Fold these 3 entries.
Entry 1:
Amino acid sequence: MSSLLNNLIVTDPSGSSRKESGGNLIHLQQRPTEDMATQGNRGRLRALASGGGSMCLEEVVIGEEIPYPYEVIQESAEYLLSGTRHRPKIGVICGSGLGGLADQLDERDVFPYESIPNFPVSTVVGHAGRMVIGLLSGVPVMCMQGRFHAYEGYPLWKCAMPVRVMKLMGVEQIIVTNAAGGLNPGFKVGDIMIIKDHINMQGFAGDSPLRGRNDERFGPRFPAMNNAYDKNLRDMAKKIVADMNLSDVVQEGVYVMLGGPTYETVAELKLLRVVGVDAVGMSTVPEVVVARHCGMKVFAFSLITNQCIMQYDTDATANHEEVIEVADKRKKDLQELACRLIVKMAVVDQDG
Ligand SMILES: O=P(O)(O)O[C@@H]1C[C@H](O)[C@@H](CO)O1
Ligand SMILES: Nc1nc2[nH]cnc2c(=O)[nH]1
């Protein structure tokens, strides 16, 4: 064991690395190389050694990745900027089955995720896996046609890294969408829930897309998360849905992200309802946390694609086919809502 430890580098909380052969609680890891930064640090070993002078290996973690540094995000942003003449200030992340908005863009430039340096790839049905940049009613927009989820095997920082790419490209406001199960008994399948707040379950458990050394160029070490969902944008959206005669299918509520890929047990749903959750999903929160960290304004909504099953005596089950089917039926309304909102967001942005 000591020969293993002798080959490890200690990284202290300030990020400086040194070789270590003893001491109290220390964090040991391989020195990150440029290769690791761009390809992911798949084989990283981490060990915790503790005790009064005598060292013991308590934990070895294989497969954990070090979040991308600023320069790596910059490389992705520069690649996209060099491939388009558009300079979007508004970004959209399309949830399951909701990617059709991106197909509405005029004069669009399309970048499959595989072609973008340092980008993850989409693996889920209903997520095309392309960045589409173009004009929506004349407003430059960049749309993620497909997102990344923790259950695909991505760490939270990687699920949310495209938000930082957007930021470095000049995006200031973001619309985040998802498909979710309706837990509030007043919600119906097909309802649209404007998200007014979230519960960050992964945060409760000590994980965060912001975990690790903070780079102030992105944002502060301790960002506030009250008012994460911009009140003006929510009010704007409510006026739009009233104009569209959709008020009776629009709700406002609290979203929770669980890790998935399992849908919830009855007991889990009962617990979530007690703590005030209205809709349950598997995304959005990491992206919103990273967007707020870097100072973006956020608007988000869930399409309620299924009613959460709270009874034991039923054969009904939640399933992804239903999620995609319901999203497909509502896509026209959702696209119009997003389109009208984007036009208003652009006007407000111009007026300061
Ligand atoms: O990407 P979103 O959050 O819209 O997708 C939801 C959560 C799972 O990925 C999937 C489950 O059906 O839909
Ligand atoms: N966790 C979760 N995610 C969903 N996405 C769409 N429907 C659901 C659901 O019922 N639960």
Note: Residues 179-181, 258, 260, 263-264, 280-282, 305-306, 308, 318, 323 surround guanine (ligand 2) (CB under 6 Å).
Entry 2:
Amino acid sequence: MTATATATSAPSAIRVAIAGASGRMGHMLIDAVLASPDLRLTGALDAAGNPSLGTDAGAFLGKPTGVVVTADVGQALANADVLIDFTRPEGTLAHLAVAAEKGVGVVIGTTGFSDAQKAQIAQAAEKTAVVFSPNMSVGVNVTFKLLEMAAKALQDGGYDIEIIEAHHKHKVDAPSGTALKMGEVIAAAQGTKLADRAVYERYGDTGARVDGSIGFATVRGGDIVGDHTVLFAGDGERIEIAHKSSSRAGYAKGSLRAARYLAQHKRGLHSMYDVLGLNS
Ligand SMILES: NC(=O)C1=CN([C@@H]2O[C@H](COP(=O)(O)OP(=O)(O)OC[C@H]3O[C@@H](n4cnc5c(N)ncnc54)[C@H](OP(=O)(O)O)[C@@H]3O)[C@@H](O)[C@H]2O)C=CC1
Ligand SMILES: O=C(O)C1=N[C@H](C(=O)O)C[C@H](O)C1
């Protein structure tokens, strides 16, 4: 989706603030919100020292919005129903703490959280509604479902599982949040835990592959938006389940669906499965 026109928002529009406003996802999200009549951009947040601070959030599109990019979380959330946050874990957690106090819903797209940080998100979701997913695209979430099915069906067939992901050269976390989630989905479908099976590195005299392990391989380069392939390697055959993003539009579109979903919820930790009705 590339939004081309600025829509006039309805009086009842959901008021949306964007964190990471000048980032790759921030720009996609601002463009998408401005093109959605049922949403209104009311806040834009970025890191202290970011060159966009003090400028109009729509300046990069040549579309003034009247919303000025700020590093002040309280100011960015003053008139917001929902915050959409694609920043870094420490930024997201700081924004979430303020949003939880104000009862502002939060869509968290940021990846790279530790287990302790994920527990903080769950705690904040007792006060406000949160959608937390390492991938907002409908296609990736359907891919998770396909992986659940494949992992169950192939469990006793001696298939070795490897997850290969590729992203642009600016990405700072590895493996991607999506790749980790794929590993979790597969492990859970097989009645196990990823932590007991994951192999994140191989180098030198590794020995033979450990049966039942789930291997991860990471590629970084150029402007690759996001590719994920899960390989089930058996005797005499291989199955590959892959998703490839050629644009960030799918992530933005899914995030807006999550924002609309949050406008109907007061608290609780929700996933994109909840938003998309994929739980059954
Ligand atoms: N769930 C999903 O569907 C998707 C998730 N992602 C995830 O979203 C995140 C952002 O990705 P992307 O847009 O490519 O990254 P960018 O680096 O392009 O943008 C991040 C933005 O957040 C700002 N930021 C960084 N640290 C902080 C902080 N501590 N407080 C406030 N703002 C901060 C950056 O400002 P500055 O440049 O000044 O540091 C920048 O404006 C990543 O974790 C990525 O993995 C990405 C795509 C899809
Ligand atoms: O950093 C990115 O770009 C992306 N990050 C997410 C992840 O870590 O899974 C989602 C998507 O793959 C793009």
Note: Residues 1-5 have pLDDT under 50 and may be disordered.
Entry 3:
Amino acid sequence: MQTNIGKKAAGEKAAEYIKPGMTVGLGTGSTAYYTILRIGELVRGGLDIRAVATSAQSEELAREQGIPLVDFDKVEKIDIDIDGADEADAQLQLIKGGGGALLREKIIAAASKEMLVVIDEHKLVKHLGKFPLPVEVVTFGWELTFRQLSALGAHPVLRLKDNNRFITDNGNYILDCHYQKIHNAPALHTQLNNVPGVVENGLFLDYASRLIIGHEDGSVREITHPYPTKTSF
Ligand SMILES: O=C(CO)[C@H](O)[C@H](O)COP(=O)(O)O
């Protein structure tokens, strides 16, 4: 049986990289949840940081935890962004957006000096693509965007929540694209973002600098990427 031990171990470990005075990006999801709880403990213990949230959900949690929040538009750079992923490979390429927050997550990752990714061991894969790739699309003309993605072999499915269309924090829809195996992630990334109506897709290529993998026994393993190019060093 899968437990949350790996997620908790990875999420909490990541908080060790936060230093006083930092501006921190708070990720979204059930693994980043543990990072936010740990940061809350550290803040209540006197750690002086400020944070920017990648979703309304994480913002609410951070507020509950007493973590000082700052508006993204008031921030010049983020020192460290800590976020989860739906899949990661050993080169630290990611699929994100299972929680529907991929657009803000990517904007904040791109504004960060470092992106730490927290996952449990089940999300480390040889090839990206088994997890359906989330693609955020504008609601206007979304059926046409859907058809164009279908024609490109994406096998899109409109994401629903409680039988209604899932709406992102940005007022958009998500089309989950079923590839099974992604062969050329950079080419796919460009192809998807070139479709009119697509706002962003969940491939995070060369963003992550450190992958923190939590195991069922509570241990963690880390893999680093020496030169991620998409974060703003
Ligand atoms: O990209 C995300 C949200 O948009 C999450 O980071 C991703 O879905 C992983 O979530 P979890 O830790 O709950 O499995």
Note: The chain has a mean pLDDT of 97.
